[in-house]
Design brief:
Radius of gyration: 33 Å
Number of helices: 25
Strand order of the largest sheet: 12-13-15-16-17-18-19-20
Helix content: 40-55%
Largest sheet: 8 strands, mixed, barrel
Shape: elongated
Structural class: alpha/beta
Length: 658
């Protein structure tokens, strides 16, 4: 469940609890509570039904008492079909489930036919009904309808909304009790002892309500897994320290934003139980390393924050961060004691000039991302340069959302040469962005932003479409290009689409290209966190005849198991080895080994980054067949590349550096 949605739900719990437990007007309290709950959950309709004997045959029946609906949703409060609804005739299953204190939850299309006949005419797609119990008996139920989407309710949502149902039961019980007390008051004018007993019962009820309120408020401000303060409580404490600093200008405090490194890998490989155990372990570890006056909070997912109350200088904060990293590296829960734990930490200092808790946490988050980008397992201190970089990233992300409709994208193509035949055999399509104000923006600047924001998915689809269209156009104009293939880089984010292989094959069919005309480049990062979905897509593409290239080989984890676990056809040696290669040095031997490995596994090997004739000579001595680099050509726009289409236009020896 996303952190922002959980925060909103917890705030809603607090609002609902406040309304139910403080509002004197019973009906007004329930209506306000339903409205607050609707805003917090984002559902379309919330209602309360009471269970009672049918007025004719006394069978268990239910009738709607209250209802809240979102804007645009038709109210059902006056629907006669929802009054005196006999369970055994329409929804027999509900009565038994609710009576056991369990919820009814799921997508309406999965419900029995008799239930669908009642729910679907109301436009309900998903439903959650929680029992309202009073003194262990079923009084009624509260329901939550979603009319715009089908969803599965998370355990956190179900638990929280059942707690709301319990609170509602307390209010109903209180109301019924107050009615009884009112009625008895008239009778107890003549019976003082009865009045005292009723007062005692009311006091017990008030005490019970206070305990419920205390628990709900605690749950609303604390993480249910670790028991630590949550984001809401953490932000409140930061705001309090900002206010204190404004009264005492010499006072300083610090915020540390902590993100566990490789947590997703641990979760995916060892399971959520191990992931949860790790989060609890880290929370306990962080608490052990701070003072009583400081605060450790879990913000959501694998993100923690620490608030250091009263620090004299930055060196104190850095010392705490360094100690956290050291302790993490030396300890781990039993489930994952074979793995190395680390975290990336962002640090920001707070003082009288701090504007808000949100700004401080944002700045610490920015610093954390710099630590993660610098190699993880380290800390980074926020400065204004980071803030400017973050603002630029936000501006670029905003502009990126409009590049397709504005036609600002273009492709450059870098040739791949077959050394033996001295012929161009393929092209790597490289994405470029011509910004309307800044001109060409480096891919190294905008591609990471597109990856993080998810915009890489539509951008990647455009690259596939455009590169195949361009190759087909060249094939129709130039016979020599009919055996070329185009290499397109795929982002790991694109593999989130289960229909990726079908989309790629549809593009090939649209431009009448054979599968051999397209090669797809992936990186080792995709294979490290692979799952059945990724494996299935790669297998589908390979079986269709599309070759898979492992890009930047040698720079990542480079587990040789990838080469036989996955349908890899081509190995691309990273340019970092080529640029530093000298005769018989370490890089030369690494390239020799990779070429020999490719030959043994019957995989093609492309050496990237070839820029000098010395590198070319050494690669020829290693019997490398395929090369790519500035010695052949820089990446070129389509018109410039087409102008050089000729059988001998790409021979590297006479051209030198293009």
């Amino acid at each position: 469940m996303p952190a922002h949605r959980l925060e909103r739900l917890l705030q809603g719990v607090a609002d609902v609890t406040q309304s139910l437990l403080t509002e004197e007007d019973y009906t007004l309290a329930v209506n306000r509570a339903l409205a607050a709950l609707g805003e917090a959950t984002g559902v379309d309709r919330i209602y309360v039904f009471v269970i009672h004997p049918h007025p004719v045959h006394q069978k268990p029946a239910t009738s709607q008492l209250w209802e809240w609906v979102a804007e645009g949703i038709v109210p059902e409060i006056d629907n006669p079909l929802l009054q005196n609804l006999v369970f055994e005739e329409f929804i027999p299953r509900w009565y038994e489930v609710l009576r056991q204190g369990e919820e009814i939850a799921g997508k309406v299309r999965d419900f029995p036919e008799s239930e669908r006949a009642i729910l679907q005419p109301q436009g309900i797609l998903s439903l959650l009904a929680a029992p309202v119990m009073i003194k262990g008996k079923l009084w009624g139920f509260i329901g939550f309808d979603d009319c715009h989407r089908e969803q599965d309710w998370s355990a956190v949502e179900i638990y929280t909304l059942k707690a709301i149902a319990g609170s509602l039961g307390g209010v109903v019980a209180r109301h019924e009790l107050e009615q009884k007390v009112s009625q008895r008051t008239q009778e107890l004018l003549l019976a003082k002892e009865e009045t005292e007993r009723a007062n005692q019962e009311l006091r017990r009820e008030n005490n019970r309500r206070k305990k419920i309120q205390k628990k709900l408020l605690h749950d609303a401000l604390h993480d249910p897994l670790t028991g630590l303060p949550n984001r809401l409580l953490f932000m409140d404490r930061v705001e309090r320290l900002i206010a204190h600093a404004q009264r005492f200008p010499d006072y300083q405090f610090a915020v540390l934003f902590i993100d566990l490194d490789r947590f997703k890998l641990i979760n995916d490989s060892l399971g959520h139980h191990a992931g949860d155990r790790l989060l609890v372990f880290c929370g306990q570890l962080f608490q052990r390393l701070i003072r009583v006056c400081d605060t450790v909070a879990r913000l959501g997912g694998d993100e923690f924050a620490i608030l250091l109350d009263g620090v004299q200088e930055m060196s104190e904060v850095v010392s705490v961060a360094a100690q956290l990293l050291l302790e993490l590296a030396q300890a781990a829960p039993p489930e994952i004691n074979h793995l190395h734990l680390s975290a990336s930490i962002g640090i920001v200092l707070g003082d009288s000039a701090s504007s808000s808790a949100a700004d401080l946490l944002r700045n610490a988050d920015i610093a954390m991302y710099r630590a993660k980008g610098a190699g993880k397992a380290r800390y980074s201190v926020f400065d204004e340069t980071l803030h400017h970089q973050a603002r630029r990233a936000l501006e670029l992300e905003s502009d990126l959302k409009k590049v397709l409709e504005r036609g600002e994208l273009l492709l450059h193509y870098q040739p791949i040469l077959h050394l033996g035949r001295q012929r161009l055999v393929g092209l790597e399509a490289l994405l470029r962005w011509r910004h309307p104000r800044e001109g060409l923006i480096s891919p190294s600047e905008f591609i990471p932003i597109a990856e993080e924001s998810g915009l890489i998915i539509p951008l990647g689809e455009w690259v596939l479409e455009e590169s195949c269209r361009q190759l087909r156009q060249w094939q129709e104009r130039h016979a020599i290009s009919r055996d070329w293939s185009v290499n397109v880089n795929l982002s790991p984010r694109q593999f989130e689409d289960v229909n990726l292989s079908q989309k790629i094959l549809a593009i090939l069919q649209r431009y009448q290209l054979q599968p051999r005309h397209l090669k797809l480049e992936i990186t080792e990062s995709l294979l490290i966190v692979t799952n059945d979905k990724v494996m299935n897509i790669l297998e589908e593409l390979s079986q269709a005849g599309i070759q898979i290239c492992l890009d930047d080989f040698g720079t990542g984890y480079s587990a040789l198991s990838y080469l036989h676990q996955f349908p890899i056809d081509v190995i691309k040696i990273d340019s970092s080895f080529t640029k530093k290669m000298r005769a018989r040095d370490k890089n030369y031997e690494i390239i020799r080994a990779i070429i020999a490995l490719g030959q043994a596994l019957e995989m093609a090997v492309v050496t990237e980054g070839v820029e000098t004739h010395l590198q070319l000579q050494l690669l020829r001595s290693l019997h490398c067949e395929l090369i790519q680099g500035f010695l052949i050509s820089r990446p070129l726009p389509a018109p410039e590349l087409e102008a050089r289409i000729a059988p001998d236009a790409w021979a590297p020896v006479p051209l030198g550096v293009a």
